[in-house]
């Protein structure tokens, strides 16, 4: 008798299966009850995203040009006919070139069966043809205003991504194979994973991106030694323990975004920007923002300036005896830094001697796909939601950012966790990405309306902080700007606009990869590259055409640049030895507060 080919199939045990389903049913009832009790009050808006109106307008304009629509449908039909013919050819044992191929970076169809099995190859190509038809048809509608067109493109892509055959049991060959091999245990385990995620989100689906049990802040991430030396309502200030006998005289302050937690810059020793800076001889301070609750709902953008970088500079002087400092701002922390520098310039405050902006927007005229969330209807709905609880919940921000890369940050985990029944892989960056933060209602509304919606920060006197009209053109301190080429949150061509804005010398560096990976790229990793150009033409495309590509991390480039503003060397300072006593060990208590608690 010939040996059987392929994996052994496992027949489901009906008793075990019924017990598992009973556990799931009981679990489900409890979660659903909790969810319903928390959402008893129905929202007053049936369409807070205002998608209905946008798609209605698109449909009316599409039907006004029936010839173009018919042409697109005929083209799709011809593609389908070609696909049928080539699929039939393969079924009969012949070879056939594919009609359409997934993009090289599309990992949804990496399983070999998508190419080797004729049926699944047909399913894959049918989906890709339909997806292309939908997206090009929507994109080609004429007469729509730019904001509406961008929203339609974005949400059409969300729909297309959601309907991919890889997301369903019966049309994903890897899931089908696993189901047969395990007797359906993968689906049972997947359902249990789904319910665990619903429970973790208290009724809202909080997709697990990593094994959260493998990480703990202060134990194996955010472990660079240091002390909290100052705190107020909005932040704790951490001073890190020196690793060199001599340090630069001017300390270095990092102002991270408060949309996420600061330890993206201090994940593990091997990829910690904080530790690397300390090893270069800097006295490093970092702001650890509070995870605000309802009692901080009235905190404003101005409060973040006063209780953030301004308070930190005062505290750093008390801790080190040094009045002057170099400062780094990351994303929203960089937007705050630019605003603060303009305010300080008006006040004659020259304590900041150099400014470094990591993937920072100041000109919001082209904010990328985030603009689809910033129309008046959505902002009004968001403000109403924040008004009821005093803050924007961290999960809402996380979902927004994940939607920008839905296949990587949503659907890949749906397939892995719920269809294949696997536990997610431990990954420090994804643990940080899931450790979301809240946003105070007053501050967040000001930020979205005045910067994203009205683009007032770039306009001289467009916004006022502490009675001072903000004018970024008056900033004359030396500036280092780092942007990333594949950034979905702060598009590099938009961040580049600030090179034409600041009054002092500017150095612009473009790193490969995206908003996070392009920043957290230590030299030891020997990954990616960065681009340098000493000239700053008005056009970002012209800058890139004249840029030189340099292998590896951009960190050493910044290290050389900031050393020029270090103010010479002095003996190392130990946290707590100055006029500020140590309050607790780094990373402090503020960073440990969870949004889901």
Task: Give a verbal description of the structure.
By secondary structure, the chain is of the alpha/beta class. Helices cover 42% and strands 12% of the residues. It is built from 19 helices and 17 strands. The strands form four sheets. Strands 15-14-13-12-7-6-4-5-2-1-17 form an eleven-stranded mixed sheet, with helices on both faces. Strands 3-16 form a two-stranded antiparallel sheet. Helix 1 (14-38) runs parallel beside helix 8 (185-200), helix 2 crosses helix 6 and helix 10 crosses helix 11. It starts with 13 loop residues before the first helix and ends in a 12-residue tail after the last strand. This is PHA/PHB synthase family protein. Pfam families: PhaC_N. It is found in: Cytoplasm. Its main location: cytoplasm.
In a few lines, what is going on in this structure?
By secondary structure, the chain is of the alpha/beta class. Helices cover 42% and strands 12% of the residues.
Q: Which consecutive residue ranges, at least 5 long each, have pLDDT under 50?
A: 39-46
Give the strand order of the largest sheet, numbering strands 1, 2, ... along the chain. Answer: 15-14-13-12-7-6-4-5-2-1-17
Mean pLDDT, as a whole number? Answer: 89
Quantity of strands, as a count = 17
Q: What is the count of DSSP helices, taking H or I runs of 4+ residues? A: 19
Structural class: alpha/beta
């Amino acid at each position: 008798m010939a040996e059987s080919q392929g994996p052994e199939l496992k027949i489901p045990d009906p008793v075990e299966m019924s017990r598992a389903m009973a556990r799931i049913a009981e679990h489900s009832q409890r979660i659903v009850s909790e969810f319903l009790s928390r959402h008893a009050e129905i929202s007053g808006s049936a369409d807070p995203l205002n998608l209905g109106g946008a798609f209605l307008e698109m449909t009316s304009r599409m039907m006004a040009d029936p010839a173009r629509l018919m042409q697109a449908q005929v083209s799709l039909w011809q593609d389908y006919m070609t696909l049928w013919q080539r699929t039939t050819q393969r079924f009969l044992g012949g070879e056939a070139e594919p009609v359409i191929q997934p993009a090289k970076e599309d990992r949804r169809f990496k399983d070999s069966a998508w190419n080797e099995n004729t049926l699944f190859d047909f399913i894959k190509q049918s989906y890709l043809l339909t997806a292309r038809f939908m997206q090009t048809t929507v994109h080609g509608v004429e007469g729509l205003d730019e904001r509406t067109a961008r929203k339609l493109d974005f949400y059409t892509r969300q729909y297309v991504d959601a309907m991919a055959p890889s997301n369903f049991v019966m049309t994903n060959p890897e899931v089908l194979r696993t189901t047969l091999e395990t007797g359906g245990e993968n689906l049972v385990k997947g359902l249990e994973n789904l319910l665990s995620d619903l429970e973790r989100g208290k009724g809202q689906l909080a997709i697990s991106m990593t094994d959260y049990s493998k990480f703990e802040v202060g134990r194996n991430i955010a472990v660079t030694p240091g002390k909290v030396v100052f705190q107020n309502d909005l932040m704790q200030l951490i001073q890190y323990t020196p690793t060199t006998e001599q340090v630069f005289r001017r300390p270095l302050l990092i102002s991270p975004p408060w949309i996420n937690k600061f330890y993206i810059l201090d994940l593990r020793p091997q990829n910690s920007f904080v530790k690397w800076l300390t090893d270069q001889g800097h006295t490093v301070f970092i702001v650890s923002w509070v995870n605000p609750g309802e009692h901080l709902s009235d905190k404003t953008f101005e409060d973040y300036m006063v209780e953030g970088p301004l308070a930190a500079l005062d505290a750093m002087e008390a801790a080190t005896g040094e009045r002057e400092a170099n400062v780094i701002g990351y994303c929203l922390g960089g937007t705050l830094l630019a605003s603060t520098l303009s305010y300080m310039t008006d006040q004659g405050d020259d304590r900041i001697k150099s400014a470094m902006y990591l993937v920072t927007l100041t000109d919001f005229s082209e904010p990328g796909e985030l603009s689809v969330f910033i129309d008046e209807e959505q902002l009004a709905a968001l403000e109403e939601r924040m008004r009821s609880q005093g803050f924007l919940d961290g999960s809402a921000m996380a979902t927004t950012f994940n939607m920008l890369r839905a296949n990587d940050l949503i659907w890949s985990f749906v397939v892995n966790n719920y269809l294949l029944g696997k536990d997610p892989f431990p990954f420090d960056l994804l643990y940080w990405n899931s450790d979301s933060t809240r946003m105070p209602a007053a501050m967040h509304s000001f930020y979205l309306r005045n910067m994203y919606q009205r683009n007032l920060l770039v306009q001289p006197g467009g916004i006022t902080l502490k009675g001072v009209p903000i004018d970024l053109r008056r900033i004359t301190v030396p500036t280092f700007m780092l942007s990333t080429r594949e950034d979905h949150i702060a598009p590099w061509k938009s961040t580049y606009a600030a090179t034409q804005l600041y009054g002092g010398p500017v150095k612009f560096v473009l790193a490969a990869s995206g908003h996070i990976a392009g920043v957290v790229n230590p030299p030891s990793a020997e990954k990616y590259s960065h681009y340098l150009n000493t000239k700053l033409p008005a056009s970002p495309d012209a800058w890139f055409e004249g840029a030189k590509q340099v292998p590896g991390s951009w960190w050493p480039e910044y290290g050389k640049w900031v050393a020029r503003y270090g103010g010479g060397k002095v003996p190392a300072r130990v946290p707590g030895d100055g006029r500020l006593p140590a309050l607790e060990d780094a990373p402090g208590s503020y960073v440990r507060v969870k949004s889901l608690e």
